[in-house]
Amino acid sequence: FELDPNLKPLFKGDMQEQGKKLMTMITVAVNGLSDLEKIVSAVKALGVRHVGYGVKDSHYDTVGSALIWTLGKGLGEEFTDSLKTAWIKVYTLLATTMKEAAAESVAESKPTPWIRRTFSP
């Protein structure tokens, strides 16, 4: 929450568990990169669920920055520029898919506005 303290209320419960969930999702995504169709529906569903948690598009950027920073700290010199670029690409793919699914969900849930028509005799 150092990057954005306003995100703290979105995370209810055990933060270690939240971290495990994030890493599990990323691991599944990395393992599924050779067959994206297998993971796309799950990632989209996750994006839709996050709408209900109050997640905004900008939050994905904050989480992405925190993830890359954490990987850099954890891997040290082994976190090469090419590895960093690969992680950024993977996270960007996941976040973009989730954001698009969330936007579609919100758009579908809005009622269709009535169209006022004037009929002439």
Protein described:
With 121 residues, this protein is mostly helical. The chain is 68% helix and 0% strand. It is globular and about 50 Å long.
What secondary-structure arrangement, pairings included, does this model have?
Elements: H1 15-31, H2 36-52, H3 57-75, H4 81-109
Please name the fourth-level CATH homologous superfamily of the domain at 39-107. Globins
Q: Which segments are poorly predicted (pLDDT under 50) over 5 or more consecutive residues?
A: none
Average pLDDT over all residues: 81
Give the overall shape. Answer: globular
Q: How much helicity do the residues have? A: 55-70%
How is the main sheet built?
none
The strand count comes to 0
Quick synopsis:
With 121 residues, the protein is mostly helical. It is built from 4 helices and no strands. The chain starts with 14 loop residues before the first helix and ends in a 12-residue tail after the last helix.
Name a few traits of the molecule.
121 residues, mainly alpha, Globin-like, 0% strand
